[in-house]
Structure formats: structure tokens, C-alpha cells
From TrEMBL:
Lineage, uppermost ranks: Bacteria, Bacillati, Actinomycetota, Actinomycetes, Pseudonocardiales
GO CC terms of this entry: cytoplasm
A Pfam family per the record: p450
Organism, scientific name: Saccharopolyspora gloriosae
Principal localisation: cytoplasm
Top-level taxon in the UniProt lineage: Bacteria
Record-stated family: Belongs to the cytochrome P450 family.
Location relative to the cell: Cytoplasm
Keyword Zinc-finger: no
Protein name: Cytochrome P450
């Protein structure tokens, strides 16, 4: 049997995401892969095919309706959190439109512009903390800056004020993005996360505030058929997790690359490059999510080359492979913010396009410009960065850098 026709087992440790993406691309525009738990799916690597599937009404994100294998999965399947929640991420058609309509008003262009002073204030506070480092001492910018910035923004939007609960939420969400988390840890973590968000909802019900949780509660209370208790909790969990994990990785990759290739930073400072260009090229070159599960074929869908995704089969979006596909991006493996085409699929496409994409861009643009303005002599304290153990999340374990040079 030709090994290239056998389903490819994805490496759960994500030890070499780029080499794996290249191997998968060579197998064709879409190829069969094996996920944890011996679950098979199609992983799509061609950006044209992937964009088409993102916009195809024959592709669903609702496993309850369109993935027969879902009913056979054990309760401790490691990727359950990616498909089982009842929110707009895992819905289709009219149900998706209903759930998305509740969230979208919080992320309009006007609302995002209004958030800018708040993001700037949080950024300044975090950089004040970084600035306290002694001369010549390295600081983990992932832990001290890239991570807490989006967490503080999304928790403020949701009205989460309990610091200890927030720290636990962040830790648990990070463990869910790790594809080496054990089934036992996953089940226990989900129970804890549901309890924490349940407590948050109960607190906001007792004392409503000027936040999205209170808004969603009011909508549900006015018409109980619009948003169930489960949908409310799952929606908040989705917004919290999606609202910070991707931005953490976006900031981390941009910072690391600008430190590694300072000529790009010099071009920004000279006015030859914009921060927007840096952000978009980072999103293309290092998508915050390397592979995004799962979608499901509602009916058979033909693929280029004669293959077909049969009705009920699962689909993984190979974002890293698609964003660097050699046939569509010459020198796609190179970071080049000045390239003429930095189009990417990191925020998806079609009806499931990321509702928080503009907030992520705002946070990255403000965070990067403020960091490098505040610390013009910021220097890397690494030679190589350790990849987080995941074939989904594309980020680093840490990001050590020296903000204050040694005085002489």
C-alpha cells in the first residue's frame, strides 16, 4: 500500500508544525489524517479549496446534526471541547445566525474604536511592570505581556472581576489548547471551568454591570427561548478562550520575529512599514492556530483531483499549511511584511469569520508599537523558542527578552 494514501497521524505534541504542514501539503489539497482517539478527518491544505469550504453551505460546524461519529465518541475524547459546546462556533445555519447576532454588536467597528483607550491603558500598566526589571535581567514577555494583555481586555468585556477565578480560567483554557492534555485532565478541567463560569453568571445575575455577560443575561431573560443556560455558559467560554489564546500567539510570534530580524523593526521606525503590515504578515506567516477542528460535510463534496469528502465526514482547516502554500505564496515560508499579498485565512472566511478579528488586530497593533517604543533596546534572551505542545495552538512556551540594557 502506498503510504501517501494512508491517513496521516497528526503529531499531538506539535513538535514540528511547519515540517508537518509541508508534508501534508505535498499529499494534495486535502488529505486524510488521524486525530487523537483514532478519529479520522480530512485536513485541507490548499487555500483556494479551504476558502471555498469555509463559504460552502454544505459544510457544517454542528456535530450533533451532521457528524454521525460524534455519538460514538467516549466522554473523555481529548478534543471534545472543540465540538461539544453549544455556541456559535459549533452551530450551523439559522442556529448559527441566531447565536452570532447576540455577540456581533459587541464587536462592531465603532465599539472596537471605543475600546482603544482601554487597551492602551492596560498596555501601559503591563509595560510599567516589565520596566521594573533590573538592567540586564530577562523577562518572559509571554507571561508578563503577551498573555495578560488580551486576557485583561476580554475579561473586562465579560465583566469577570474575580482575580483567582480568572487565573484558573486562563490556566484551564491553555490546557485545552494543548493536545497532549490527558483525557482525565480534560474532563476534570471542563467540570471546573463550567463551575467557574456558572459562578460568574450567577454573580452577574445578582448584580448586573456594564458588560457583555449582563447584556446576554438580559436578552435571555426578556425572551427565554433565545438563549438557554447552556448556550449562555458555552458562549462565554468561547469568547474567553478565543478572545485571548489567538492574540497571545499573534503577539508572541511578532515580537520574536522582530527581535530576530531587527531590519523589519527598523523599517517600521523609518516609516517604510506600518504596524498593520507587520500584524497581517505575522497572521499569514504564523497563524495563531495551526489547525482548526472541526467542520462536517452535510453532503458529498468533490475535491480537486477526484477525491470527495463524503457526507458526515469531519474536516480540519490546515491554516498553517494554507497560509504558506507554495503554489499560492512564493517564498511563503519567509516573513516579509512588505510583500504585496499577505492575504490569509487565520481568521477564517465566510459566515464563521472570527467576530473578534478587529479586536485582536487592535490589541496587536497597540501592544507591539507600545512595547518597542518603550524599550528601544529590547534584546532577545533566546536562541530557539520552545513550541507549545499542540497541533492546534501555534505559540511558544515562553518568550525571554531583556527590556533594560546593562548600564556601564
Amino acid at each position: 500500500m502506498d503510504p501517501s494514501t494512508c491517513p496521516y497521524p497528526l503529531d499531538p505534541t506539535g513538535s514540528d508544525l511547519h515540517a508537518e504542514a509541508a508534508r501534508l501539503s505535498r499529499r494534495g489539497p486535502a488529505t486524510r489524517v488521524v486525530l487523537p482517539g483514532e478519529v479520522e478527518a480530512w485536513l485541507v491544505t490548499d487555500p483556494v479549496v479551504l476558502r471555498s469550504l469555509f463559504a460552502d453551505p454544505r459544510v457544517s460546524k454542528d456535530p450533533h446534526r451532521h457528524w454521525p461519529a460524534y455519538r460514538e465518541l467516549p466522554p473523555d475524547w481529548p478534543l471534545h471541547t472543540w465540538v461539544s459546546m453549544r455556541n456559535m462556533f459549533n452551530s450551523h445555519g439559522a442556529e448559527h445566525r441566531r447565536l452570532r447576532a447576540l455577540i456581533a454588536p459587541a464587536f462592531t467597528a465603532r465599539r472596537i474604536r471605543e475600546l482603544q483607550p482601554h487597551v492602551e491603558r492596560i498596555t501601559t500598566e503591563l509595560l510599567d511592570d516589565v520596566a521594573a526589571a533590573a538592567p540586564g535581567v530577562a523577562v518572559d514577555l509571554r507571561e508578563r505581556f503577551a498573555n495578560p494583555l488580551p486576557v485583561a481586555v476580554i475579561s473586562s468585556l465579560l465583566g469577570i472581576t474575580d482575580r483567582s477565578a480568572l487565573d484558573e480560567m486562563r490556566r484551564l483554557v491553555e490546557s485545552f489548547f494543548s493536545t497532549t492534555t490527558t483525557p482525565e485532565q480534560m474532563v476534570s478541567g471542563m467540570e471546573t471551568l463550567y463551575r467557574l463560569f456558572g459562578d460568574h453568571v450567577a454573580a452577574r445575575r445578582r448584580t448586573p454591570g456594564d458588560d457583555l455577560t449582563s447584556d446576554l443575561l438580559a436578552m435571555r431573560d426578556e425572551d427565554g427561548t433565545r438563549l438557554s443556560d447552556g448556550e449562555l455558559t458555552d458562549t462565554l467560554m468561547l469568547m474567553f478562550s478565543a478572545g485571548h489564546e489567538t492574540t497571545v500567539n499573534l503577539l508572541g510570534h511578532a515580537i520574536a520575529q522582530l527581535l530576530t530580524e531587527p531590519r523589519h523593526l527598523a523599517a517600521v521606525r523609518a516609516g517604510d512599514l506600518s504596524w498593520d503590515a507587520v500584524v497581517e504578515e505575522t497572521l499569514r506567516w504564523q497563524p495563531p492556530l495551526a489547525n482548526l477542528p472541526l467542520r462536517f460535510a452535510v453532503e458529498e463534496i468533490a475535491l480537486p483531483g477526484g477525491d470527495a469528502i463524503r457526507a458526515g465526514e469531519a474536516i480540519v482547516a490546515g491554516l498553517l499549511a494554507a497560509n504558506r502554500h507554495a503554489a499560492h505564496y512564493p517564498d511563503g515560508e519567509l516573513f516579509d511584511p512588505a510583500r504585496s499579498d499577505s492575504a490569509h485565512l487565520s481568521f477564517g472566511h465566510g459566515v464563521h469569520f472570527c467576530v473578534g478579528s478587529q479586536l485582536a488586530r487592535l490589541e496587536a497593533r497597540i501592544g507591539l508599537s507600545a512595547l518597542f517604543d518603550r524599550f528601544p533596546d529590547l534584546t532577545p534572551a533566546f536562541t530557539e523558542l520552545e513550541q507549545r505542545p499542540s497541533f492546534i495552538s501555534n505559540g511558544h512556551v515562553d518568550l525571554p527578552a531583556i527590556p533594560n540594557p546593562t548600564t556601564t
